[in-house]
Amino acid sequence: MNLFDIKDKVIIITGGYGVLGSSIAKHLVDSGGKVAILGRDEDKAKTFANKLSSTNAIGLKADVLDKENLTSVKDTILNTWDRIDVLINAAGGNMPGATIAPSDSLFDMSMNDFKKVTDLNLMGTVIPSLIFGKHMAHENEGSIINVSSMAVPQALTRVVGYSASKAAMENFTRWMAVDMALKYGDNIRVNAIAPGFFIADQNRRLLTNEDGSLTDRGNTIINNTPMKRFGDSKELNGAVHLLCSNASKFMTGTVIPIDGGFGAFSGV
What we know:
Rossmann fold; seven-stranded parallel sheet; alpha/beta; single chain
């Protein structure tokens, strides 16, 4: 038996047509998984799903902060494939008002934007985990994979709202992992990956100039990354595949850094 085989596993990905989510989705479909692409833009979700596969991918409109909507989405997925094996919480993001530029004061931060970032990154993981995790608890089997950040173990300047909300989400990952194992058995796992620096729409202008050269912040990151480059979205797929498969059956409550050595490097 191939422990890494994920053929016919039903996998849900929130934020499934984003830069990182879409790369993960393509890999999982190519590996034989059945993938539900969830996102707020129904046309984007369906278009991307159709591009991946006419049979093994579906696109559904979903708001990760709306319990009723997610419950309806869960029913649709169960009616389509009759099971849910994996949930990947890839939806997340940042807001300009919850970042602190070098010339800004922390005390002028927009609390409205801070709350929006917290809702998206923390509650946008908690709510789907509860909605889809309840089905896993009923079946006594499943894997939840959250997307944390290397902004959690280290204080990265500027991204205060993002860092704080991801830190809370990472703690929830461990908490839910323990609770599910104690109450619903050893076949339910809750883990996270922690990407380092990957170029995406949300951070492109922070890290690169319009001509493609690195900003001062981009140069600082590269200088503190032993591999001396940013990550490629495809480089998340191996760890995600592991956590989707039975090869990780004794892993729960873990956070896997994927950061080119950024978290291990002291800068000296």
